[in-house]
Specification:
The complex is a heterodimer. By secondary structure, chain A is mainly β. Chain A is 4% helix and 19% strand. Chain A folds into 2 domains: 116 residues, no CATH class; 147 residues, Barwin-like endoglucanases, CATH 2.40.40. Chain A has 2 helices and 11 strands; from the N terminus they run E-E-E-E-H-E-H-E-E-E-E-E-E. In chain A, the strands form 3 sheets. In chain A, strands 5-7-6-11-4-9-8 form a 7-stranded mixed β-sheet. In chain A, strands 1-2 form a two-stranded antiparallel ribbon. A two-stranded antiparallel sheet of chain A has the order 3-10. Chain B has 2 domains: 218 residues, Alpha-Beta Plaits (2-Layer Sandwich), CATH 3.30.70.20; 44 residues. The chains are: A mainly beta, B alpha+beta. At the A-B interface, helix 1 of A face helix 1, strand 2 and strand 3 of B.
Chain lengths: 300, 271
């Protein structure tokens, strides 16, 4: 069925139900009962998608043979609701699943059948988004006094292997991001042994802007020492305009970047970039703050 | 006979992942340079740098920036152009280079004697010697895959369909449509090698570029070695004529010199 390629005719509204297949039940928009108002009519002609047809004649119940009242959800898409559950249906007090919902509660996978703008429970922060600076930052939060997330994780606080720079620490004036390359996988333990991948990215590098390179007397391919409060490593400079100086809170701030796929074994070897990163994590899923922290760069 | 097949490479959607390079090497079992142990080139994200006997695909990275964050990063997956009039095929003395039923150009490794004439003849610098076989090698447009109805490894691996494989006629239609679409968006876009009336009778691997061909390392007017034949033949004939005249003059001068010495030597007796 996924191989089907029959579109709806031009000018005819529809959900292209014969084009491929969508899980579940070939339904194209989930919770689509919400495309109709409380009485089951489309919110507007433009938003017409599925609606309640009160005059639809249903066949008798196949199990009991009892007649079924008139009315059914119809439309362009496969309705995502009880097919014959009328808009004025009342929830059953001891009902299970859809029976516990009324005919005006389209979000059938939620316990209360309603859509949520935010999660009222389960997350340690929220419910609305805001801006916090990373734990290590060269500037004060320009938005308000709260510098960082008040609930973010800090592992091993105060330990010598997790020293953290203060806001605007002059010893570590640059912002660094760590990231991946397509050529390597995770810390590179597998990909750095593969000749075809190793030749594509043979050495660890640090990308830095022309302005910072000039300031520090660093030329393309020079060795540089990159340091953070946690440690220092060596890498070759890749001087480029793809990264550079940003003007934040009235001062120029240099941004540098490093891929983190290297280690001491394999065909392609290099220093471990995670020796620099801080043991700080986001409040909910504990992803460590490797995208934004501070460092210093000097010519080796 | 099947119709002409080839590649249309739309450089605007290349993301520089190099999956084509790796897929090519894997299918064709090409070795890595120096076993994979190399040095950073310092030239953007490009560390293989060129097409040669063990790199039949190569992704170029071109950084065009005026200042920090101000510019664009062009990427282009380069390969043998499978020229309709191929310079390599023209000069090959052993007949190792053939035109296939798919209108592609293939070097037969078992016939090639490694003379390297084709390396100099290619206007795109595509060919080089594979140190493992000692013969000249380049992209075969996966002739072995085409024979069994598969598309080449690189276009199969390309995640964005920057490299598209198909019949040349159909690819050209698609390419012109894409150029129109980009021009409507205000993007400067040109096809390179899509014109059957153009250089080398058209390229069976052609490109959509957003800058001058030179920016991508492609010659504006690629030429066949034979295009210089008339000129070089004229020079040869002319220089032969000049040398001939000089030789005659020299001989005459020698005879005159000998005569002027009054026939002192035995040589004068046979004048």
């Amino acid at each position: 069925m996924t191989a089907r390629r029959e579109p709806d005719p031009p000018g005819v509204p529809g959900a292209h139900l014969k084009w491929g297949w969508a899980w579940p039940a070939n339904r194209r928009v989930m919770y689509n009962r919400a495309s109709a108002d409380l009485k089951g009519n489309p919110w507007s002609e433009r938003k017409r998608w599925v609606w309640w047809d009160p005059s639809f004649v249903n066949p008798p119940d196949p199990k009991t043979g009892k007649p079924v009242p008139h009315g059914k959800w119809v439309g362009y898409d496969v309705p995502d609701f009880g097919a014959t559950k009328a808009p004025d249906a009342q929830p059953k007090p001891d009902g299970i699943a859809l029976d516990a919902l009324s005919g005006t509660q389209p979000f059938i996978m939620r316990a209360d059948g309603r859509g949520w703008l935010f999660v009222p429970a389960g997350l340690v922060d929220g419910p609305l988004p805001t801006h916090y600076e990373p734990h290590e930052s060269p500037i004060q939060n320009p938005l308000y006094k709260q510098q960082t997330s008040p609930v973010h994780k800090v592992w091993a606080p105060g330990k010598p292997y997790n020293k953290l720079a203060a806001v605007g620490d002059p010893k570590f004036p640059y912002v660094i991001s760590t990231y991946r390359l397509t050529e390597h996988y995770l810390a590179g333990a597998m990909s750095r042994w593969l000749p075809w991948l190793a030749e594509l990215q043979p050495e660890l590098f640090i990308e830095l802007g022309h302005d910072l390179a000039k300031e520090k007397g660093i030329k393309n391919l020079d060795w540089v020492v990159v340091s953070s409060p946690r440690g220092h490593i060596r890498a070759k400079a890749l001087v480029t305009h793809r990264i550079g100086v940003m003007h934040i809170a009235g001062k120029p701030i240099h941004h540098v970047g490093m891929p983190w796929h290297w280690g001491w074994m394999g065909l392609s070897t290099g220093d471990v970039v995670n020796d620099l990163t801080s043991w700080v994590g986001d409040p909910n899923v504990s992803i460590h703050e490797g995208k934004a922290f501070v460092c210093n760069v000097e010519k080796a | 006979m099947p119709e002409p097949m080839g590649f249309f490479t739309d450089t605007t959607v290349c993301i520089g992942c190099k999956a084509c390079e790796v897929a090519c090497k894997e299918w064709n079992q090409l070795p890595a340079e120096n076993g994979g142990i190399g040095e950073l080139s310092g030239d953007s994200y490009d560390n293989t740098r060129k097409l040669d006997g063990i790199h039949w695909r190569h992704v170029r990275f071109i950084e065009q920036f005026k200042g920090p964050y101000d510019g664009r990063w062009l990427m282009m997956s380069d390969v043998c152009k499978h020229c309709v009039q191929a310079g390599c095929l023209e000069v090959c003395p052993t007949g190792a280079i053939i035109r296939t039923e798919f209108d592609t150009v293939v070097i037969q490794s078992d016939v090639c004697n490694g003379c390297r004439a084709c390396i100099a003849a290619c206007p795109f610098g595509v060919i080089d010697v594979n140190p493992v076989s000692g013969t000249a090698q380049k992209c075969t447009l996966c002739y072995d895959r085409l024979k069994v109805g598969l598309e080449p490894a690189c276009s199969k691996a390309c995640p964005t369909d920057s490299i598209q494989f198909g019949s040349i006629v159909e690819l050209r239609t698609r390419a012109h449509k894409r150029v129109d679409q980009l021009k409507a968006q205000g993007v400067k876009a040109e096809l390179y090698g899509a014109d059957p009336e153009g250089a080398l009778g058209g390229l069976n691997s052609f490109y959509l570029l957003v800058d001058e061909p030179e920016v991508y390392g492609l010659p504006r007017k690629p030429q066949l070695p034979s295009s210089r034949l008339a000129k070089s033949a004229t020079f040869s004939v002319a220089s032969a004529a000049v040398l001939g005249v000089l030789a005659l003059v020299g001989l005459r001068k020698r005879r005159m010199d000998e005569q002027s010495r009054g026939g002192g030597g035995g040589g004068s007796s046979n004048v």
